[in-house]
Automatic annotation (TrEMBL):
<feature type="compositionally biased region" description="Basic and acidic residues">
    <location>
        <begin position="351"/>
        <end position="361"/>
    </location>
</feature>
<protein>
    <submittedName>
        <fullName>LUC7 like</fullName>
    </submittedName>
</protein>
<dbReference type="GO" id="GO:0005685">
    <property type="term" value="C:U1 snRNP"/>
</dbReference>
<feature type="compositionally biased region" description="Basic and acidic residues">
    <location>
        <begin position="308"/>
        <end position="341"/>
    </location>
</feature>
<dbReference type="GO" id="GO:0042802">
    <property type="term" value="F:identical protein binding"/>
</dbReference>
<keyword id="KW-0175">Coiled coil</keyword>
<feature type="region of interest" description="Disordered">
    <location>
        <begin position="232"/>
        <end position="361"/>
    </location>
</feature>
<dbReference type="GO" id="GO:0003729">
    <property type="term" value="F:mRNA binding"/>
</dbReference>
<feature type="coiled-coil region">
    <location>
        <begin position="94"/>
        <end position="172"/>
    </location>
</feature>
<dbReference type="Pfam" id="PF03194">
    <property type="entry name" value="LUC7"/>
</dbReference>
<dbReference type="InterPro" id="IPR004882">
    <property type="entry name" value="Luc7-rel"/>
</dbReference>
<comment type="similarity">
    <text>Belongs to the Luc7 family.</text>
</comment>
<feature type="compositionally biased region" description="Basic and acidic residues">
    <location>
        <begin position="232"/>
        <end position="257"/>
    </location>
</feature>
<keyword id="KW-0508">mRNA splicing</keyword>
<dbReference type="GO" id="GO:0006376">
    <property type="term" value="P:mRNA splice site recognition"/>
</dbReference>
<keyword id="KW-0507">mRNA processing</keyword>
<feature type="compositionally biased region" description="Basic residues">
    <location>
        <begin position="258"/>
        <end position="307"/>
    </location>
</feature>
């Protein structure tokens, strides 16, 4: 990559897609499904293992440092939860790597002769010492490249001690099995990167393996996967707590609203009840008043009727008395009348008086 391309990539990584106003680059957002979420989180295996024996080639999704810068800026304001997609991607990759490791172990078990558990343990000890030597040499080279010579010398002294232990372990392993089978039990599979390691590899070969880009890249991927799992678990727990808190708040609001509605219903019911009571009391008072008025009217009407009857009776008695007086006076003047005539006249007079009284009534 030229210096200009490196400078352009650095500007993209720092400022994002909007650094030069290029609208064509802004058409694809970092939230697009075509963008690699593992690349945004700087853990895509295609980038980490590029140039190694297990180079995966170009990723099928978009890789752009400017989009990564856009994501980093946006993730400071809100949680985008891209870690879940990246975790799924790395889990599938590591699962495939572990599958290849188990397959390689199976092939070695088929090609190599079976040995006893004691001999296998001695061979495993030699392999462990080889790994320790390789890791220490890789660390010493790294410290020497950084200019920390004293620490590098101390690690090299530890390497000499481990070499002595390895020599003793190899002698024990050589003496525990026949010479014909010794050369066949010389390979093992690296648990990290699934590469083959020889039992009799020299220090330079071990240092190159454990300090190489392939082995360190797999270590980086596995560590990033563990970190993503922890981050996803924490965020999911936080989301569950937020969801539970929102549910409790919603339920509390619903309870309060139900209480307020029931209170309002009770108030309306009490108001309607009091209103009905007032109406009932007013109707009862009106009924009592009407009954009282009707009773008073009937009483006055009866009183007037009785007074009229009394006045009519009194008038009738007066008229009768006057008629009787006039009749007595007339009879005394005319002499004794005929009893038939008197009788008929009396009946007629009594009939007239009854008719008159009935008409007055």
């Amino acid at each position: 990559m030229s210096a200009q391309a490196q400078m352009r990539a650095l500007l993209d990584q720092l400022m994002g897609t909007a650094r030069d106003g290029d609208e064509t680059r802004q058409r694809v957002k970092f939230t697009d499904d075509r963008v690699c979420k593992s690349h945004l989180l700087d853990c895509c295996p295609h980038d980490i293992l590029a140039g190694t024996r297990m180079d995966l080639g170009e990723c099928t999704k978009i890789h752009d440092l400017a989009l990564r810068a856009d994501y980093e800026i946006a993730s400071k304001e809100r949680d985008l939860f891209f870690e879940l997609d990246a975790m799924d991607h790395l889990e599938s990759f590591i699962a495939e790597c572990d599958r290849r490791t188990e397959l390689a172990k199976k092939r070695l078990a088929e090609t190599q002769e079976e040995i006893s558990a004691e001999v296998s343990a001695k061979a495993e000890k030699v392999h462990e010492l080889n790994e320790e030597i390789g890791k220490l040499l890789a660390k010493a080279e790294q410290l020497g490249a950084e200019g920390n010579v004293d620490e590098s010398q101390k690690i090299l002294m530890e390497v000499e001690k481990v070499r002595a232990k390895k020599k003793e372990a190899e002698e024990e392993y050589r003496n525990s099995m026949p010479a014909s089978s010794f050369q066949q039990q010389k390979l093992r599979v690296c648990e990290v990167c699934s590469a083959y390691l020889g039992l009799h590899d020299n220090d330079r070969r071990l240092a190159d393996h454990f300090g190489g880009k392939l082995h360190l890249g797999f270590i980086q991927i596995r560590e990033k996967l563990d970190q993503l799992r922890k981050t996803v678990a924490e965020k999911q727990e936080k989301r569950n707590q937020d969801r539970l808190r929102r549910r409790e708040e919603r339920e509390r609001e619903e309870r309060l609203s139900r209480r307020s509605r029931s209170r309002d219903r009770r108030r309306r019911r009490s108001r309607s009840t009091s209103r009905e009571r007032r109406k009932l009391s007013r109707s009862r008072s009106r009924d009592r008043h009407r009954r009282h008025r009707s009773r008073s009217r009937s009483h006055s009407r009866g009183h007037r009727r009785a007074s009229r009857d009394r006045s009519a009776k009194y008038k009738f008695s007066r008229e009768r008395a006057s008629r009787e007086a006039s009749w007595d006076s007339g009879r005394s003047e005319r002499g004794p009348p005929d009893w038939r005539l008197e009788s008929s006249n009396g009946k007629m007079a009594s009939r007239r008086s009854e008719e008159k009284e009935a008409g007055e009534i």
